[in-house]
Specification:
28% of the residues lie in helices and 26% in strands. It has three helices and five strands; from the N terminus they run H-H-E-E-E-E-H-E.
Protein backbone atom coordinates (compact mmCIF):
# COMPACT_ATOMS: atom_id res chain seq x y z
CA UNK A 1 0.00 0.00 0.00
CA UNK A 2 1.46 3.39 -0.90
CA UNK A 3 1.94 6.15 1.67
CA UNK A 4 -0.77 8.23 0.05
CA UNK A 5 -3.29 5.43 0.34
CA UNK A 6 -2.23 4.61 3.90
CA UNK A 7 -2.47 8.28 4.88
CA UNK A 8 -5.92 8.55 3.30
CA UNK A 9 -7.10 5.50 5.15
CA UNK A 10 -5.73 6.78 8.47
CA UNK A 11 -7.35 10.17 7.87
CA UNK A 12 -10.70 8.51 7.11
CA UNK A 13 -10.51 6.16 10.11
CA UNK A 14 -9.68 8.99 12.52
CA UNK A 15 -12.51 11.11 11.11
CA UNK A 16 -15.00 8.27 11.53
CA UNK A 17 -13.88 7.39 15.04
CA UNK A 18 -13.99 11.01 16.19
CA UNK A 19 -17.44 11.64 14.77
CA UNK A 20 -18.74 8.54 16.54
CA UNK A 21 -16.68 9.01 19.69
CA UNK A 22 -16.61 11.37 22.67
CA UNK A 23 -16.45 14.47 20.50
CA UNK A 24 -19.89 13.70 19.11
CA UNK A 25 -20.65 15.79 16.04
CA UNK A 26 -17.70 18.15 16.61
CA UNK A 27 -15.80 18.52 13.37
CA UNK A 28 -12.05 18.73 13.74
CA UNK A 29 -10.23 21.46 11.85
CA UNK A 30 -8.56 20.18 8.69
CA UNK A 31 -5.09 21.05 9.94
CA UNK A 32 -5.57 18.70 12.94
CA UNK A 33 -6.54 15.84 10.66
CA UNK A 34 -3.57 16.54 8.38
CA UNK A 35 -1.16 16.73 11.33
CA UNK A 36 -2.47 13.44 12.71
CA UNK A 37 -1.92 11.74 9.36
CA UNK A 38 1.59 13.22 9.08
CA UNK A 39 2.53 12.03 12.56
CA UNK A 40 1.31 8.51 11.75
CA UNK A 41 3.82 8.23 8.90
CA UNK A 42 6.71 10.12 10.55
CA UNK A 43 9.31 8.39 12.71
CA UNK A 44 8.07 7.73 16.23
CA UNK A 45 8.91 10.49 18.71
CA UNK A 46 10.48 9.88 22.11
CA UNK A 47 8.23 9.80 24.02
CA UNK A 48 5.53 8.80 21.51
CA UNK A 49 3.38 11.82 20.58
CA UNK A 50 -0.22 12.72 21.21
CA UNK A 51 -2.77 15.43 20.41
CA UNK A 52 -5.62 16.37 22.70
CA UNK A 53 -8.50 18.80 22.40
CA UNK A 54 -9.35 20.83 25.50
CA UNK A 55 -11.22 23.91 26.53
CA UNK A 56 -8.91 26.67 27.77
CA UNK A 57 -9.73 30.32 28.39
CA UNK A 58 -13.23 29.81 26.98
CA UNK A 59 -12.21 28.33 23.64
CA UNK A 60 -11.28 25.03 22.06
CA UNK A 61 -7.55 24.40 21.84
CA UNK A 62 -5.35 21.57 20.69
CA UNK A 63 -2.30 20.46 22.68
CA UNK A 64 0.36 18.93 20.39
CA UNK A 65 3.09 17.10 22.29
CA UNK A 66 6.70 17.35 21.19
CA UNK A 67 9.43 14.81 21.05
CA UNK A 68 12.37 14.60 23.34
CA UNK A 69 14.79 16.99 24.80
CA UNK A 70 13.85 20.59 25.44
CA UNK A 71 11.37 20.95 22.57
CA UNK A 72 8.22 22.93 23.27
CA UNK A 73 4.81 21.28 23.16
CA UNK A 74 2.38 23.78 21.68
CA UNK A 75 -1.26 24.69 22.19
CA UNK A 76 -3.11 25.93 19.08
CA UNK A 77 -6.58 27.35 18.53
CA UNK A 78 -9.07 26.12 15.90
CA UNK A 79 -7.36 28.25 13.24
CA UNK A 80 -3.90 26.79 13.99
CA UNK A 81 -2.76 30.01 15.67
CA UNK A 82 -0.20 29.16 18.33
CA UNK A 83 -1.54 30.15 21.76
CA UNK A 84 1.41 29.08 23.93
CA UNK A 85 3.81 26.35 24.93
CA UNK A 86 2.83 25.06 28.38
CA UNK A 87 5.87 22.79 28.68
CA UNK A 88 9.24 22.06 27.15
CA UNK A 89 12.20 24.33 26.62
CA UNK A 90 15.45 24.37 28.57
CA UNK A 91 13.72 24.42 31.97
CA UNK A 92 10.68 22.33 30.99
CA UNK A 93 8.33 25.19 31.93
CA UNK A 94 7.31 26.20 28.41
CA UNK A 95 7.33 29.73 27.03
CA UNK A 96 5.66 31.34 30.07
CA UNK A 97 2.57 32.47 28.10
CA UNK A 98 0.20 30.00 29.78
CA UNK A 99 1.58 28.93 33.16
CA UNK A 100 -1.97 28.04 34.25
CA UNK A 101 -2.69 25.70 31.31
CA UNK A 102 -2.56 22.44 33.26
CA UNK A 103 -4.65 23.86 36.10
CA UNK A 104 -7.24 25.56 33.88
CA UNK A 105 -7.72 23.20 30.93
CA UNK A 106 -10.92 21.16 31.02
CA UNK A 107 -13.09 18.79 29.03
CA UNK A 108 -10.03 17.24 27.39
CA UNK A 109 -10.43 14.51 24.78
CA UNK A 110 -7.55 12.54 23.31
CA UNK A 111 -7.59 13.09 19.54
CA UNK A 112 -4.61 10.94 18.70
CA UNK A 113 -1.97 8.94 20.56
CA UNK A 114 0.92 7.26 18.78
CA UNK A 115 0.53 3.55 19.45
CA UNK A 116 4.05 2.81 18.30
CA UNK A 117 6.73 2.30 20.93
CA UNK A 118 10.13 3.82 21.51
CA UNK A 119 12.69 2.78 20.51
CA UNK A 120 11.27 1.81 17.13
CA UNK A 121 11.56 -1.83 16.18
CA UNK A 122 14.43 -2.40 13.79
Amino acid sequence: MSKINATSIIFFMVALSLNAGPLGAYELPGWVMELTAQKETAPVENPPGHIEKCSYQGRDVFYVSSGCCDQYSYVYDDDQVRVCAPDGGMDGQGDGKCPDYYDMKKDCVMIWRDSRTWPPEQ
